[in-house]
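Researcher: Here's the sequence for the chain we discussed earlier.
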Amino acid sequence: MNLFVRIKDVVSADLHKVIDDREKKNPTAMLNQFLRNCEAEVRKVEGLIKRQGELKAKFYEEKDHAAYMVKKRRSQIEIATRAGEEDLARRAHEESLYYKEQAVKLGDLYTKAEKDEYDLQNQLQDMRNKLKEMKNRRYELMSRENVAHASKRMTDSMSGLSDEGPSSYFDDANKQIERLEEMVQEEYERTSFDMRMAHLEREFALKDKAE
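Model: Thanks. This is the structure I predict for it:
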């Protein structure tokens, strides 16, 4: 076997294994694959029913042709008899009987094919209805799965909000703001003190100069 073909087969096998493993962990993926398989089966059945319709039409066509040949051979019997051609009349009679028999057989085959097609159409509709039900069921399961994921995420989030974490965040923020307020107040008091002292110094300087 060609080396590249072997490599391709190994890679393909590994890929299928990965997909299979993922699907085992994901029920929705498995369900989607199952529905895809069902849809493929429906398409196959549709093709077979279409073929059945074509065969039914062929039986009808052959039945009509056999009936036509019966009339034709009976007309030819009269012509050959009037002409005194007994061999031709006998041959035409034999073939008229043959085509008559064929017309009956083909008529029965057409009737059966028509009934089979009708039954198959009903079964196909049942398959389509069942497939539709399964798709709706899938949507229901997907909705439940979505709600479960959303609920779990909200539960996890609420759990995080109700534990010590958020409180400690607020406590730390509050302490930082208090320290900032204290620093602002200290800066204000220091600035105010310096301003007052400078004012007093100017006053005393002016007083001393005046004396």
